[in-house]
Amino acid sequence: MTRDSDPDQPEAVTCTGLAYSFGETNAVDGLDLSVRPGEVFGLLGPNGAGKTTAIRCITTLLPVPAGMVRVFGSDAAKDRMGVRRLLGYVPQQLSADAGLTGRENVALFARVFDVSRGERAERVGQALAAVDLTDAADRLAKTYSGGMIRRLELAQALVSAPRLLILDEPTIGLDPIARTGVWEHINAVREATGMTVLVTTHYMDEADQYCDRVGLMHRGRVRALGTPTELRQGLGERRRAEGAPASAPLPTLEDVFRDVAGSGLDDKSGDFRDVRSTRRTANRVG
Amino acid sequence: MSEAPAVLPTVSAERVEGIDLLLRPPRPRAGWRLLPARVGAMCTVELQKLRHDRTEVYTRAIQPALWLLIFGQTFTRIRAIPTGGIPYIDYMAPGIIAQSAMFIAIFYGIQIIWERDAGILNKLLVTPTPRSALITGKAFAAGLKSLIQALVVVVIAALLGVALTWNPLKLLGVAGIVVLGSAFFSCLSMTIAGIVISRDRLMGIGQAITMPLFFGSNALYPISVMPGWLQAISKINPLSYEVDALRGLLIGAHAHVALDFGVLLVAALIGITAASSLLGRLAR
């Protein structure tokens, strides 16, 4: 599904030597990354690999202290407003306002993205319809299920017609059916609009199934990059060359990840705060 | 859907129809129109929330009602406080209106921290909204919320027989003063939020500063009867200027409305600047 990159069109995202540290911890440590226009790119890694920090630099939430970040050619350090106009962002937490209806939640983002008054109602309606929330649109978001809130957030992000949709752990804490639902909506919208999708996840099976290309991130850097099939076949071939039987099943993305990350994966996978915030999100989703 | 889905209804590109508007990015607003638009957006959200849940307006009306009813009526009989010939309940009503507006604003930072924890703040920060515009929007939204509260207290005061003005121009001035004062106090709250980050600590600090701000102002008694040190505090306390203006506008007492307006405007601008510069800490 990967589209050939057009030499005239700038990459959707380019990070060169991006580094960000919290005190002594180098959360992102010389990250090089490029996301092609129109693809679904998955940034994978365990808790604490630096995915969220990288995403926050790309979304202009954090400054870019070292290296460079560009979104469709615009510099995230210099042209923050320009970059923000290109982005739709869904953070890890369930970020819809529970005290507002679905429609009001989406309308807020139409307003802050300068959608004109004459167009607002219709545009909000289209965004809600695209995620199948038309019927629930006038109910308070606190009555929504976890999967519905994720779809509502997708509508909030879509209402400004972003060229790049950034989703941070979109399916965390959801049940399998809701997870599939969220991914199907992401894909349907991507196919209909041609937007680029950058998604972080630590569910390797989802990345395998839904991403055109993935980058495996560990300790602040991308350690392996390619289509899920390329990465799995690559490891399979290497294992056969090292004497594994030809009948051995193709390695999974998780195997690839263990291979890349090596040992010590368990004791560095996310600090207390990470796990707590992940659990909190999972709790809210129910 | 003409055919029955086999297991689960699946979504496909064909089903996502009528999305022509979602393919066209909205045209950016010109620079000077951005700020009023963001203020409008934040105020709209505040009104929508109040429409869905008015509990806060009612529960927060109890305290000022008690102040006026008990403290006001008792002290009117005692005549202990020199008010310049005005019945004491009339004298204190503008003070209680300012107090109840301030109480709403001073805890507004809790909402910002809640929005931060919920990821809402981050999402707003990834929109084409400069931080100062976001804070200004929030400050005016807090002002609007306080104004609605102030209206409730004005009605209670009127029911208790306080002789208030019904001059629409003066009432408009009252609204402006309440919004500006609350914009300042909400920015003070959001500034503290940016420093302490945690909701519990902000709650504690909020509790600790509201009473000193209230008693260290002219809300209940004139500055002239205060000891010297309290007079000094009262003169740098924006609440005193808010009360002075409200007293002048609402009950026609002697006041320096223009000066009060100027002080509150400058205070609000300083507050917006301080809160905006600390907002980045909440984004981290």
TrEMBL record, chain A:
<dbReference type="InterPro" id="IPR003439">
    <property type="entry name" value="ABC_transporter-like_ATP-bd"/>
</dbReference>
<feature type="region of interest" description="Disordered">
    <location>
        <begin position="263"/>
        <end position="286"/>
    </location>
</feature>
<feature type="domain" description="ABC transporter">
    <location>
        <begin position="13"/>
        <end position="244"/>
    </location>
</feature>
<dbReference type="InterPro" id="IPR003593">
    <property type="entry name" value="AAA+_ATPase"/>
</dbReference>
<dbReference type="InterPro" id="IPR027417">
    <property type="entry name" value="P-loop_NTPase"/>
</dbReference>
<keyword id="KW-0067">ATP-binding</keyword>
<keyword id="KW-0547">Nucleotide-binding</keyword>
<protein>
    <submittedName>
        <fullName>ATP-binding cassette domain-containing protein</fullName>
    </submittedName>
</protein>
<dbReference type="Pfam" id="PF00005">
    <property type="entry name" value="ABC_tran"/>
</dbReference>
<dbReference type="InterPro" id="IPR017871">
    <property type="entry name" value="ABC_transporter-like_CS"/>
</dbReference>
<dbReference type="GO" id="GO:0005524">
    <property type="term" value="F:ATP binding"/>
</dbReference>
<feature type="compositionally biased region" description="Basic and acidic residues">
    <location>
        <begin position="265"/>
        <end position="277"/>
    </location>
</feature>
TrEMBL record, chain B:
<keyword id="KW-0046">Antibiotic resistance</keyword>
<feature type="transmembrane region" description="Helical">
    <location>
        <begin position="96"/>
        <end position="114"/>
    </location>
</feature>
<dbReference type="InterPro" id="IPR013525">
    <property type="entry name" value="ABC2_TM"/>
</dbReference>
<dbReference type="Pfam" id="PF01061">
    <property type="entry name" value="ABC2_membrane"/>
</dbReference>
<feature type="transmembrane region" description="Helical">
    <location>
        <begin position="147"/>
        <end position="166"/>
    </location>
</feature>
<keyword id="KW-1003">Cell membrane</keyword>
<feature type="transmembrane region" description="Helical">
    <location>
        <begin position="209"/>
        <end position="230"/>
    </location>
</feature>
<feature type="transmembrane region" description="Helical">
    <location>
        <begin position="172"/>
        <end position="197"/>
    </location>
</feature>
<comment type="similarity">
    <text>Belongs to the ABC-2 integral membrane protein family.</text>
</comment>
<keyword id="KW-0812">Transmembrane</keyword>
<dbReference type="InterPro" id="IPR000412">
    <property type="entry name" value="ABC_2_transport"/>
</dbReference>
<feature type="transmembrane region" description="Helical">
    <location>
        <begin position="250"/>
        <end position="279"/>
    </location>
</feature>
<dbReference type="InterPro" id="IPR051784">
    <property type="entry name" value="Nod_factor_ABC_transporter"/>
</dbReference>
<feature type="domain" description="ABC transmembrane type-2">
    <location>
        <begin position="55"/>
        <end position="282"/>
    </location>
</feature>
<protein>
    <recommendedName>
        <fullName>Transport permease protein</fullName>
    </recommendedName>
</protein>
<keyword id="KW-0472">Membrane</keyword>
<keyword id="KW-1133">Transmembrane helix</keyword>
<dbReference type="InterPro" id="IPR047817">
    <property type="entry name" value="ABC2_TM_bact-type"/>
</dbReference>
<keyword id="KW-0813">Transport</keyword>
